[in-house]
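Contributing new complexes? Match this layout with zinc ion.
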Amino acid sequence: MPISCTGLLRLLHLFLLLSSTLAAEDPIISRFQQYLQINTAHPSPNYHQAVDFILSQAKSLSLQSQTIEFAPNKPLILLKWTGKNPTLPSILLNSHTDVVPVEPHKWSHPPFAAAIDSANGNIYARGSQDMKCVGLQYLEAVRNLKRFNFEPLRTIYISFVPDEEIGGHDGAEKFANSEVFDEMNVGIVLDEGLASPDESYRLFYAERCPMWLVIKAAGAPGHGAKLYDNTAMENLLKSIESVRRFRASQFDLVKAGLKAEGEVISVNMVFLKAGTPSPTGYVMNLQPSEAQAGFDIRIPPIADQASLERRIAEEWAPASRNMTFELGQFKQKMSVYDENGRPILTAHDGSNPWWALLEGAIDKSNRRFGRPEIFPASTDARYFRLKGVPAIGFSPMANTPILLHDHNEFLNKEEYLKGIEVYESIIKAFASFAAETEKDEATKDEL
Ligand SMILES: [Zn+2]
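Output block (do not edit by hand):
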């Protein structure tokens, strides 16, 4: 017998009710569901509801809290657990509260219901991977540590920032450049990473820097029937071919397994603009005098940005071929180097004790981790690294398909719970770390 639409809806409702009842048995999971159910998707994230929820959690954990608006209606929450030696550089656990938009009809479960599939324990929701999981895992780890009367030596800050998904300019960027941040004397930041389809966690020490390139070609206009040199279209096509060859050379390195995705320069054409519009389409018997193309480029800090810029000026948009170019990202050019000319990355060798502490803590929780990687896209961690503060990208999600920004984003219940255990181990290791780091030495010099 066919089931009617209302019948289906009723069944769905019953299913949701059942899954939330099941979850209610586990307060940890039910808190995660509550956070996921707050719709903080762009373009109109409900930040205030998220703030209320986080603040109520902070209160239950007796953490000090403050809400700061670096931009109107874009609240950032800063929680504090004061250490026994607050003069030591502190630990910052960062996460963003916003999520990317959804196309609900393409989801198997409603994206803000946080329904649990009872067959396998998967929790479906936008933000389940990116990155409400991490934000609440920090808090759950703190809850457990407090229950066992753990007392941190170093002060622990937990920040919940807005707007990461739209560039972080009114969130982490303003925060990292604020007096509030300076006063926190942060020694290490933990921020987001990516899920890993295999059993090893992924750790990120840097990220690629976005560079948006627009190249423009000019040439004499002419009749569509005429063959002549140096048309705008021909000039642009030569450049596109050159860019395409470069892209293939980089992609081949990844395909051959010689480099990871984050270690090569990616170049992707994102628009192509040319032609003379007519009421019915385009004028067909006219060769246009202008043509342009746009490219999204991502450069790892281990690449030679200056040589890429030379390649752009000499090969991709040479003045000799009547070409010009604009380089930018959010109207300003980004660089893989900081103001002192050093590549923006966090050391992942013996010179950075935090890295060894992190690996040791993961080891202790009986989990594996892979080779340190460069994050292929951008996260808020870059703003902290730019300030010279080490930042490690890590989201404890192994055996999980990468579904950030995708339909049917989910995280398994057991994987979420395991992640809390791992953060307990990390926070314990970081907050108990008594030895002096380079930053500690510098702080002492100032005193
Ligand atoms: Zn994210």
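Reviewers usually confirm one structural detail per submission. For this one: The chain has a mean pLDDT of 92.
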